[in-house]
Design goal:
Chain lengths: 468, 153
């Protein structure tokens, strides 16, 4: 299979492979990694064709573009030898076309006269067409990879430009320019990346059970999915600034965000609900079989409950007769507030998995963010479910903590162990799990208090920290 | 909220989930609004097998909307049949298929009706009522509230 060079960005490194793999899966082509290094923005992959390469990269967030690989080497002599060996038969096709020849040096630089010398050393291509810096028909690039502070590059590649990535969406969806956001809105780049990794694609149905201001549904809709979401906090969905319906101006809400990007046709709607008392159909629980999922993907950033305390519907103590009656008498009152009780993050994670297992279609994805304290004991904590197989784990490191994006694939029923399924079903029906803070959990949460402080110090979002 | 969401929503009470009458929820005093959008065949094709057809039909009737056919359409029913194959000879069979094939599909009336009902018809105000326990969930400004009062959790 032909080799292609993907020009990656050198950020969110641990997400890059997962994204490329997901993009290949969405496109329906096979992709193999030939060369990949976490420290380098140059990655070599196998792909069946130029068209496949273009299709894969056109949605990419963590890349700039893709190139047909014409050669590689650790010195220029090696590169020339490799280029002559690999691509000699390709030169003629571009013989008299307008062309462009440039150099991309990573962690290094070249003066313009050095650049000219390098470019002229490839004159044996015999290109006689006009040089054009814009809209050239063929664009060739030399890639130089330097070690930190090194004088000479350690790796060289030469490639012909095929297509640019979809990274510009990061700017389009930038939170700074978004109509309606809150302190917990997910960064646009990461939301788009999550949508890619969860395989959001034209015509699919995606759901976010903790939608907040709608960051993930927006990202999924950008890729053509039809989306809906819910949140326990109605104010986050309905927004601020009064009622648009009553003609008040300055209304800022989730619908407004969809309108801003012209994708409101893909917004199925949102509702106010608690994930642990979801109004969504739970098909497999109802009939005891395992078929009937209807969501292609679930993407979310669950509440962590460190700062405000994670809440779900219900009361701390079971209600007595009189209290029940009081609720019954008052709940129709517009000022009635449904009671909420504290809940454990661990139990919530299990609930999300159980929810995903019943509502996802076979091979559908759950992509969920999860904060982790940087501590060896915690390192291993990845929640599991017999119907879900972990498909990627990506880490965004911070100083004393990190955030992970866990992605699961809903196994086809034929691959699920029946035994495991029965256990999962029972667990789910039991509902709320024991909530005692054992040592493990305590450590986990302590890590977060630490992290919260850091957030404050960093002064993120006007000093109002995130909810966790 | 687009009407399609009713295809996924039941009563939020755990005790109702196992009862067939908790699905679908019944719209009451509903104020509908049509919000036009582009028809998307890929989506309709994807969602078709996931539709709870007879329940959706029922909802349409309760809302007094044009009724859906008794049995669900097939994916093929979503596009108009291509005009009888051109009798042109077998000169370039494969290339014709590749270029002319997809993209130029014409949505059928069935597809248009489904699109109108599921994706353009929205509930703006009203209530959604559980057929099992009778609990009413309010819809305000297009957003339904499924938070359960203390005595129903
Ligand atoms: C980290 S925020 C998600 C923000 C969102 N990704 C965005 O871009 O705006 C978590 C959200 O979960 C909601 N939430 C908290 N507890 C919940 C529960 N039990 N069920 C559903 N949503 C809940 C909170 O109101 C909050 O909006
Ligand atoms: Zn009910």
């Amino acid at each position: 299979m032909p080799e292609y060079l993907v020009r990656l960005v050198q950020v969110h490194e641990s997400f890059r492979k997962a994204e490329l793999q997901a993009l290949a899966e969405i496109t329906g082509v096979g992709l193999g990694f030939v060369l990949y290094d976490e420290e380098s923005p140059f990655c070599i992959v196998n792909l069946p064709s130029d068209t496949a390469a273009q299709d894969v990269i056109s949605r990419g967030i963590l890349s700039h573009g893709i190139y047909e690989l014409w050669g590689k080497g650790s010195t220029y002599d090696e590169l020339h030898a490799s280029v002559k060996d690999t691509s000699r038969n390709k030169w003629a096709a571009y013989h008299n076309l307008p062309f462009r020849f440039t150099i991309d040096s990573y962690r290094g630089s070249r003066t313009s006269s050095e650049q000219r010398t390098i470019i002229e050393s490839f004159s044996y291509f015999g290109f006689v067409g006009p040089i054009r810096m814009r809209d050239a028909d063929v664009s060739i690039k030399v890639f130089e990879d330097y070690d930190f502070k090194a004088k000479t590059p350690k790796q060289l590649f030469l490639g012909r430009f095929i297509a640019k990535s979809g990274r510009h969406a990061k700017t389009t969806y930038d939170l700074k320019k978004r109509h309606y956001i809150s302190t917990t809105s997910m960064d646009a780049e990461l939301a788009l990346l999550t949508a890619n990794i969860a395989l959001a694609a034209p015509g699919k149905v995606f759901f976010d059970p903790f939608m907040g201001t709608g960051g993930f549904p927006l990202a999924c809709a950008h890729y053509g999915a039809f989306v809906c979401g819910s949140d326990i906090d109605g104010r986050s969905i309905r927004g601020t600034g009064g009622s648009a319906r009553r003609g008040q101006t300055g209304k800022m809400d989730v619908v407004g965000n969809f309108k801003q990007y012209g994708i409101e046709g893909h917004y199925l709607g949102a509702f106010i609900s608690d994930l642990t008392n979801t109004p969504l159909r739970l098909p497999r629980l109802e009939d005891g079989t395992t078929t009937g999922g209807y969501l292609d993907g679930i993407v979310c950033d669950p509440p962590y409950g460190i700062r405000e305390g994670l809440k779900v519907l219900g009361t701390r103590e079971e209600l007595g007769e009189i209290e029940r009656q009081t609720h019954e008498d008052r709940y129709r009152d517009p000022n009635y507030i449904p009671p909420k009780k504290p809940y454990s993050f661990i139990a919530m994670l299990d609930d999300i998995l159980a929810f995903a297992a019943t509502t996802l279609v076979e091979n559908g994805r759950l992509s969920m963010w999860m904060p982790i304290a940087n501590d060896e004991d915690i390192e291993i904590m990845i929640p599991t479910h017999p119907c879900l197989e972990i498909s990627s784990v990506c880490v965004q490191p911070f100083n004393k903590w990190s955030r992970r994006l866990l992605t699961y694939r809903r196994l086809p029923d034929s691959e699920v162990s029946q035994e495991g399924l029965q256990i999962a079903k029972k667990d789910y029906e039991k509902g709320i799990k024991a909530d005692d803070l054992n040592g493990f959990r305590r450590k986990y949460f302590e890590g977060f208090k630490e992290q919260q402080k850091l957030k404050y110090e960093a002064g993120n979002f006007n000093g109002i920290g995130r909810e966790f | 909220m687009k009407l399609l969401t009713l295809n996924f929503l039941t009563c939020a009470r755990r005790t109702c989930k196992t009862s067939p009458s908790s699905f679908p929820l019944h719209p009451r005093e509903a104020e509908l609004e049509i919000l036009e959008s582009e028809l998307n065949l890929v989506f309709l094709r994807n969602i078709l097998p996931r539709l709870m057809w007879s329940e959706l039909r029922g909802i349409g009737e309760e809302l007094g909307l044009p009724s859906l056919p008794e049995s669900p359409p097939s994916r093929e029913d979503l596009v108009t049949k291509p005009s009888p194959a051109k009798p042109s000879s077998v000169t370039e069979p494969s290339s014709v298929e590749e270029e002319g094939g997809e993209g130029e599909e014409v949505p059928s009336q069935t597809a248009k009706d489904l699109h109108r009902l599921l994706l353009e018809t929205t509930i703006k105000e009203g209530k959604l009522v559980c057929g099992n326990c009778g609990h009413e969930y309010a819809v305000k400004e297009g957003v339904a509230n499924f938070l359960l009062p203390g005595h129903l959790v």
